[in-house]
Write a structure and sequence with these properties.
126 residues, mainly beta, seven-stranded mixed sheet, 0% helix, 48% strand
């Protein structure tokens, strides 16, 4: 199994930026798609962004397209989520996830990801 640990969350004003990190241990994550999801109070967990392997293809939710950027450093077993122009609606707990099924399109549903981190809180004030 792989253990995922998120960091980088916090409180930021609207229009500000944060960079989330997700460090993986216990198993190399190089061949796998890595995703970010978020869950606001009273809402379902929703897809934010994902990055595939080996070409590093990416996919974003419409709500974050153009503002967020996902990247990965396979040497460091770490995936990042750069979040710019943050809005109060971006307030949520952000989760990192790993999809161990190779050779398929980037999955967008939470149930398709096998390992999850504990989450990191992002709060955007207006």
């Amino acid at each position: 199994q792989v253990q995922l640990v998120e960091s980088g969350g916090g409180l930021v004003q609207a229009g500000g930026s944060l960079r989330l990190s997700c460090a993986a241990s216990g198993r190399t994550f190089s061949p796998y798609t890595m995703g970010w999801f978020r869950q606001a109070p009273g809402k379902d967990r929703e897809f934010v962004a994902a990055i595939g392997w080996p070409r590093g293809s990416t996919h974003y939710a419409d709500s974050v397209q153009g503002r967020f950027a996902i990247s990965r450093d396979n040497a460091r077993n770490t995936v990042y989520l750069q979040m710019n122009s943050l809005k109060p609606d971006d307030t949520a707990v952000y989760y990192c996830a790993a999809d161990f099924v190779t050779g398929r399109p980037i999955p967008l549903a939470a149930y398709e990801y096998e390992s999850w981190g504990q989450g990191t809180q992002v709060t955007v004030s207006s």
